[in-house]
C-alpha cells in the first residue's frame, strides 16, 4: 500500500517546531502531524513544522531538493505499507536556525538524543561543564539548551506569548529534565527572564514509542523500491507507534489525540512501563545478546534461551511498575518481545548499546533499586550490568560497520583495562559509577551477583554463556 499526501499543503502554517530532525522524529511525531493534516479537522489541520538540526548531518538541502516530503515504510514481516509525509515544511541547520523567528511557534518538540540535554547522567541537573562555552558566548550557542534559552529570552519573551516545549527523548522524566536544565542555564545567563519563563513556558513529559533503527544501505534500497523512488530522508519503521503526553500546555497545541495520541495527567506509569519493559529488554539484549554472538535485536529475541530469559526479566521489571490505565503489563511484555522479533527491522545491538551510560540508569538501574528495596535480589538486572561492564567502551564494528559510542566510552574502557584481572573489582568499579541509584551502588548482595556474572561471562564462549543464561532462567 502506498499512501500519498492527500491534503492541500498550502493550508499548512508554520506553527510548530522540532529540534533534532532524525530518523525517529521523521517516523513518529511528524507522522502524527501528517495524520492531523489528512484528517482535515478544523482545529488541527494546518499545523506545519519547521525542523531544526543543531548538529550534523545538515539535511536542509536534501529536504528542499525532494520537495519537502519523504516516505515512511512500515513493515511487520507480513504487510509492508508506504506513506508520504508532507507536514515538515522547512529544515534549518544551526546557522540558519540562529536567525529563525520563533514568534509564530506555539508548540515545539525535541529529539536531540539522551546526551543532548547537557545534564549529569542519572539526574536532571545541568552539567555546567557541558554548557561552559555557551555561558561564555550566550549569543552564539552551540548546545540545544543554549539555543532554546537564547530563543526564549531574546525572541519569545519579547512577544510575551507562551510556548510549550515537549521533549520526546528516551530519558527519565524528559519534560522535568528539559525544564530543569533550561531554567538552570537561564538562571546563570538570562536571570531577568526567569519570572517570564516560570509563567509562560511549560515542559510536558512524553512517552514516545516506535522502533526506528538508523537507516542502512539495505533499508534505503528497500524503502526506495517499496515507495517508488529516490528518498534520502525516508525511514523504515515498525508499524507500532504510541505517544502519551502529559497534559501540561502553556499554549495552543495540535490536537494529537485526534491522531491516536494520549493526553494524560499522570505520565509516569506510561514512561516507566515503556522504559523498563520495551527499552529495558532492548538494552538487556544489547548487552547479553552481543555476549552470546548476536548483533541484532531480532536475532537475539528469536533465540529460545534468550526468550525464556526475557520472560523472567520482564516479570521482574513489571513487578516494579504501576500499571497505567488501560494497559495490561503481561500483555505489554509479550507484545514488546514480539516487536523485537520483527525480522524486517534489523536493529543493530551496537546502536542500542550506544549511550548506555545515559540509558541504563532508567532502564536497569531504577528497577533494580526498586527490586532491592522490596527484598528481591535483582539478579536479572545484575546480569545486564555485568554484560555492560565486560563490553563497555568496546568500539569494534559489527558486520555492517555499526559501532557502539558513548560519551563515557574512554572512561569505561579505562575501567575495564584497569580491572581486567579482577572480576570483583570490575563489577564494583561499574557499580560505583555516579549514574546508578544509591541503593544499587551500596548493595553488597547486588555487587556479589554482578561479580558472579562478570566471572561467568568473562572468557566463556557464546554457547557457554547461553547455557548459563538458560540455567538461570530455569532456577
Ligand atoms: P538520529 O541519529 O537519526 O538523529 C539524532 C538527532 O539528534 C539529529 O537530528 C541530531 O541533529 C540531533 N542531535 C544529536 N546530538 C545532539 C546534541 N548533542 N544536541 C542537539 N541535537 C543533537 O537518531 P533518532 O533515531 O532520531 O533518535 C533520536 C532520539 O529519539 C533518541 O536518542 C531517543 O532519545 C529518541 N527515540 C528514538 C527512537 C528510535 O527508535 N530511534 C524511539 C524512541 C525515542
Ligand atoms: C532503543 C530505542 O536505541 C535505543 O536506545 O532502545 O531507540 C528504542 O528503539 C525506542 O525507544 C523504541 O520506541
Number of strands: 13
- What structural class do you assign from the helix and strand content? alpha/beta
How far the N terminus sits from the C terminus, by CA atoms, comes to 47 Å
- Shape summary: globular
Which value, in Å, is the CA radius of gyration?
22 Å
Keywords:
binds 1,4-dihydronicotinamide adenine dinucleotide, 475 residues, four-stranded mixed β-sheet, binds D-mannonic acid, 13 strands, alpha/beta, globular, six-stranded parallel β-sheet
Describe what you observe in this structure.
The chain has 475 residues and is α/β, with parallel strands linked by helices. It has 21 helices and 13 strands. It has helices at residues 23-27, 29-39, 60-65, 94-98, 132-136, 144-159, 174-189, 194-200, 217-227, 268-291, 297-301, 304-318, 329-340, 349-353, 356-373, 379-391, 409-418, 423-431, 438-441, 444-457, 462-474; strands at residues 2-3, 13-19, 47-53, 70-75, 80-85, 88-93, 107-110, 163-167, 201-202, 206-209, 235-237, 242-246, 262-264. The strands form three sheets. Strands 6-3-2-7-8-9 form a six-stranded parallel sheet. It has a four-stranded mixed sheet with strand order 1-5-4-11, sandwiched between helices. The chain has a three-stranded mixed sheet with strand order 10-12-13, covered by helices on one side. Strand 4 (70-75) and strand 5 form a beta hairpin. The chain is globular and about 60 Å long. 50% of the residues are buried. The mean pLDDT is 95.
Amino acid at each position: 500500500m502506498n499512501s500519498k499526501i492527500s491534503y492541500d499543503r498550502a493550508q499548512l502554517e508554520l506553527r510548530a517546531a522540532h529540534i533534532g530532525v532524525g530518523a525517529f522524529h521523521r517516523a513518529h511525531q511528524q507522522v502524527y502531524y501528517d495524520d492531523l493534516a489528512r484528517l482535515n479537522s478544523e482545529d488541527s489541520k494546518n499545523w506545519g513544522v519547521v525542523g531544526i538540526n543543531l548538529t550534523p548531518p545538515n539535511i536542509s538541502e536534501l529536504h528542499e531538493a525532494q520537495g519537502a516530503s519523504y516516505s515512511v515504510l512500515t513493515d511487520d514481516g507480513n504487510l509492508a505499507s508506504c506513506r508520504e509525509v508532507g507536514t515538515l515544511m522547512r529544515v534549518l541547520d544551526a546557522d540558519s536556525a540562529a536567525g529563525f523567528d520563533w514568534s509564530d511557534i506555539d508548540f515545539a518538540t525535541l529529539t536531540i538524543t539522551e546526551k543532548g540535554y547537557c545534564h549529569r547522567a542519572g539526574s536532571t541537573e545541568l552539567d555546567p561543564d557541558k554548557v561552559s562555552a555557551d555561558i561564555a558566548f550566550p549569543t552564539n550557542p552551540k548546545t540545544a539548551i543554549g539555543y532554546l534559552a537564547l530563543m526564549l529570552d531574546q525572541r519569545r519573551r519579547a512577544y510575551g506569548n507562551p510556548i510549550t516545549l515537549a521533549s520526546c527523548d528516551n530519558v527519565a522524566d524528559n519534560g522535568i529534565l528539559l525544564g530543569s536544565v533550561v531554567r538552570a542555564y537561564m538562571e546563570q545567563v538570562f536571570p531577568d527572564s526567569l519570572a517570564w519563563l516560570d509563567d509562560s513556558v511549560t515542559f510536558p513529559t512524553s512517552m514516545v514509542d516506535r522502533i526506528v533503527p538508523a537507516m542502512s544501505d539495505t533499508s534505503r534500497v528497500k524503502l526506495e523500491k517499496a515507495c517508488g523512488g529516490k528518498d534520502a530522508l525516508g525511514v523504515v519503521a515498525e508499524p507500532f507507534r504510541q505517544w502519551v503526553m502529559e497534559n501540561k500546555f502553556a499554549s495552543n497545541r495540535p490536537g494529537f489525540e485526534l491522531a491516536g495520541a494520549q493526553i494524560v495527567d499522570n505520565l509516569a506509569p506510561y514512561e516507566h512501563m515503556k522504559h523498563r519493559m520495551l527499552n529495558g529488554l532492548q538494552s538487556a539484549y544489547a548487552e547479553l545478546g552481543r555476549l552470546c554472538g548476536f548483533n541484532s535485536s531480532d536475532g537475539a529475541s528469536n533465540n529460545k534461551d534468550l526468550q525464556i530469559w526475557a520472560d523472567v526479566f520482564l516479570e521482574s521489571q513489571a513487578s516494579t511498575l504501576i500499571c497505567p490505565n488501560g494497559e495490561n503489563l503481561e500483555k505489554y511484555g509479550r507484545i514488546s518481545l514480539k516487536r523485537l522479533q520483527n525480522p524486517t527491522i534489523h536493529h543493530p545491538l551496537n546502536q542500542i548499546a550506544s549511550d548506555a551510560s545515559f540509558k541504563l540508569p532508567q532502564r536497569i538501574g531504577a528497577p533494580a533499586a526498586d527490586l532491592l528495596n522490596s527484598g528481591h535480589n535483582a539478579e536479572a538486572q545484575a546480569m545486564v550490568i555485568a554484560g555492560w561492564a565486560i563490553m563497555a567502551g568496546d568500539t569494534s564494528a559489527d558486520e555492517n560497520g555499526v559501532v557502539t559510542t558513548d560519551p563515557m566510552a574512554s572512561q569505561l574502557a579505562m575501567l575495564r583495562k584497569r580491572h581486567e584481572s579482577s572480576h570483583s573489582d570490575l563489577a564494583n568499579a561499574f557499580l560505583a559509577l555516579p549514574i546508578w541509584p544509591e541503593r544499587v551502588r551500596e548493595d553488597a548482595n547486588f555487587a556479589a551477583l554482578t561479580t558472579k556474572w562478570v566471572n561467568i561471562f568473562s572468557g566463556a564462549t557464546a554457547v557457554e554463556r547461553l547455557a548459563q543464561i538458560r540455567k538461570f532462567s530455569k532456577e
